[in-house]
Write a structure and sequence with these properties.
By secondary structure, the protein is α/β, with parallel strands linked by helices. It is built from eight helices and eleven strands.
Length: 234
């Protein structure tokens, strides 16, 4: 059973969502401010965090950034206005999904299910090496030059998709459906943000790519060839 942490300063909404999510089998605990949320993250290790952008003392964006410094736990952000820039900022800071308010609780459940499916997706049961890059698909871990790369759920999902379809150009719609897991009219910017962050972490120059190449007007393709030598034990 998955543990979900709600960091929302509206106690009424916290109670409503806790009751509703409980009906779908989720164990939920809540926090009404960032400090309380960080304490519960450290002591309870949630499987997923639902994070409101509007919080007292520290914005949800800042809290997301703080969480990402030490954790890759999946994060869904609730944006008050649902504006494009709010969503882009959240994704750039490492959020896995967003949901504009007001929203239907059932849609939140769908988002949670999609994010957790991505987090649990094994992709492959063995570790593979592509030049300087090693990937353990079972443990959702990657190393560059034998140094761990701290990837979010979305970043690993994008890498997983591109590697499994190496040599094939994946368009933004295909990548977007993998990242979100549900049909939506979401903007393609989400894909570009995720790929940009992934490239930065892999130190992959878009102008001279080693791993991910942009095919203008089409999408992205993983170009690195798999190494024959077995990756070292890490």
């Amino acid at each position: 059973m998955s543990w979900t942490l709600l960091v929302i300063d509206d106690e009424k909404l916290n109670k409503l969502l806790k009751r509703f999510l409980g009906e779908f089998g989720y164990r939920v605990y809540t926090a009404v401010d960032p400090d309380e949320g960080l304490k519960k993250i450290r002591t309870m290790t949630p499987d997923l965090i639902i994070l409101d952008v509007m919080l007292p003392g520290m914005s949800g964006f800042d809290l997301c950034k703080t969480i990402r410094q030490s954790s890759t736990v999946p994060i869904i952000m609730l944006t008050a206005r649902g504006e494009l820039m709010d969503r882009v900022v959240g994704l750039e800071l490492g959020a896995d999904d967003y949901l504009p308010k007001p929203f239907e609780p059932r849609e939140l459940v769908a988002r949670i299910q999609a994010v957790l499916r991505r987090a649990e997706h094994s992709g492959s049961d063995r570790r593979r090496r592509f030049g300087r890059l090693s990937i353990d698909f079972h443990r959702h871990e990657a190393w560059l030059d034998d140094t761990p790369v701290n990837l979010t759920t979305n970043e690993f999902a994008a890498l997983d998709l591109l590697v499994r379809h190496a040599g094939k150009v994946m368009d933004r719609d295909e990548i977007l459906q993998t990242l979100r897991g549900i049909d939506s009219d979401a903007f393609n910017r989400a894909v570009d943000v995720t790929i940009s962050r992934l490239r930065q972490k892999l130190r992959d120059d878009p102008k001279h790519p080693e791993f991910i190449k942009t095919v203008w007007g089409a999408g992205y393709v993983f170009i690195a060839e798999e190494s024959d030598d077995a990756p070292p034990s890490i």
